[in-house]
Each structure stands twice: as structure tokens, then as C-alpha cells.
Amino acid sequence: MSAVIIDGKKIAADIRAGVAEKVKKLKENGVEPCLAVILVGENPASVSYVTGKRKALAEAGIADRSVNLPESTTEEGLLKIIDELNKDNDVDGILVQLPLPKHIDEDKVLLAIEPSKDVDGFHPVNVGNLMIGRKGFLPCTPHGIIVLLKTIGIETDGKHAVVIGRSNIVGKPVSMLLARKDVNCTVTICHTGTKNMAELTIQADIIVVASGRPHTLTKDMVKDGAVVIDVGVNRIPDSSKKSGFRLTGDCDFYDLVEKTSFITPVPGGVGPMTIAMLMQNTLESACARCLDYSC
Ligand code: NAP
Questions:
Q1: Full-model pTM
Q2: Which of 140, 191, 235 to mutate to test the pocket of ligand 1 (most atoms within 8 A of CB)?
Q3: What is the mean pLDDT of residues 117-135?
Q4: Domain that holds residue 94
Q5: Do the domain assignments include residue 132?
Q6: Which residues pair with 247 in a beta bridge?
Q7: Among residues 80, 113, 174, 266, which one has the fewest Cβ atoms lying within 10 Å of its Cβ?
Q8: Are the C-beta atoms of residues 214 and 234 closer than 8 Å to each other?
Q9: Same structural domain for residues 265 and 156?
Q10: Do 144 and 111 reside in the same domain of the chain?
């Protein structure tokens, strides 16, 4: 068997094109969607993520109110900027790129963002809404994974999904979304305390890997025909590349292609979906201030 390699780039591009169309319509109704992306410091991975997000904003026609702050920014200074953006009626979404420098309390910062502008879906109000199935912003990466599965027509009803990782931004929320009635998987969550993880993954119809460790999922851990979603983004030193590194996921991709039915590549799988869902969340936030309800 050789897997279908899921083209996250293409699916994300279609979503972004749809967002751009709707942004046009909103602008005709006098509403200009706007996102503020806040970057503190110069962590290379964060700079690269923020660059990708800003490029997507430009392409979608969404106004970009991004703020680049020095590493030395104080917690108080950052909270003040968030407060100003919360009060600014022209701003629909606020995203603080993580991780923050160690002297800033991430929890305090995420709590400071107005839940109605929390397009990353990390505020406890939005996390709570996700848990109990109420409307709210869904976190972009987990939501992007569900949209990927639905778009390519993967049968999820009654299937066994194993999620490797229990972080607040990927593992836990994607587990919760997979278990929702509209997806209807039976979900097992694995982490570093899980004994004999392979005994669980080998039973899985769908495996979502978000460990942040290369080679977490190997060929012997997967049954024939399983669907594998690789969330991991790992920088591996590679002197043959201009950047000095290459990106890999958390799975042994080339081995798994031979055994699975569908698999996401890294890069080009989940990553582009994260950005597409961010554009969609920003659009939805802006729709709330449009008087034409068909928007
Ligand atoms: P994280 O906060 O470091 O969490 C990793 C989770 O994996 C933890 O729950 C950890 O367990 C578990 N884990 C680590 N090694 C394991 C192992 N060998 N076996 C079983 N469980 C293991 O990471 P994260 O923020 O969730 O991100 C995960 C990966 O996804 C990273 O590579 C990150 O860069 C990537 N990511 C990609 C996107 C995207 O858009 N493509 C978005 C977000 C994150 P414990 O809880 O026991 O420590």
C-alpha cells in the first residue's frame, strides 16, 4: 500500500481564497477585517510563523495591525498594548505569538485578550466553549486537522483515534474535537507517561502525532491503512540547506507512506491549515460587526 499524501497547502489555499472573497464582501459593507499579531523578541521559528501569518493577511485583504516588540518588553508593557487593542473597535482579532520570553507570564497574557477577539482560541472562555460544544473560537491547529479530515472525506464515525500529546494548544483540544458528536471518534490520549504506546497506536484508525519529537511514530506502531496526521515541526540541522536546517515531523514519514492510507507531509500538511483557520476566525470575528447578516 502507498498512502495518499494529503495536500494541506492546496486545501488551505482553497479556504483562504474563500476567506478573501468574503473579506471583499465585508469591505463593500463598510467593515474592514483586521488582525493584530504581536511578536515579542526574535525567536527564529516565531519570526518565520509571524511572517507566514502576515503574508496570508495581505493575500486575504485583511488589515494587518501587527506589532513587533523587543525581547526586553515588560509584562506590563505587553498587557498595556493588549488592553489598547481590546478597546479598539477596528481590531477584530489579537494573536500573541508563543513562546514569550521567560520574564513574561504567558497565562496572564492569554487571559488579558478579550475572548471575542481571541482568534487563536487559547483564552479559557474559548477553551471552555470548546469543551461543552458552545460557539466560540476554535484553536487553529486542532480545527485545521478536523477540516483536513472532513475535506478529504475520511470516515471518522465510530473510528478509534489515538492522539500523541496532551498540550493545551494541540493534543487536548484536538482530542476533544475528535470526540465531538459531529466527528464521533473514540479517542485515546498518549503522553510521556503512557506505557506501551505501540499497543494503543497499532489499534488506531486515525493517529494524530503532536509530540514535538522526531521518530515518535514508527512503522511498527501503525496498522495497515491507518490515517496519520503529523503535527510536529522539528528543525533538523542540514548543511546542504541554505538555512542550515530542514523541517521534519514527528513521524517516520517515508516508512509510513508505505503502510498508511493517508498521511500529512511536513512541511505542507497541517501547518498551512493553521494559518487558513486563523484567517477564517478573523473573518468570523469581523462578521460580528457587519450589519448585513448574509455576510
Ligand atoms: P508540547 O507542548 O511540547 O507537547 C508535547 C506533548 O507530547 C506533551 O504532552 C508530551 O507529553 C508529549 N510527548 C512528547 N514526547 C512524547 C513521546 N515520546 N511519547 C508520547 N508523548 C510524548 O508541544 P505542542 O505545542 O503540542 O506541539 C507539538 C508539535 O507540534 C511541535 O513540534 C510543534 O512545533 C508542532 N506544532 C505545529 C503546529 C502547526 O501549525 N503545524 C502548531 C502547533 C504546534 P507530556 O505531557 O507527558 O510531557
A1: 0.97
A2: 191
A3: 97
A4: 30-115
A5: no
A6: 235
A7: 80
A8: yes
A9: yes
A10: no
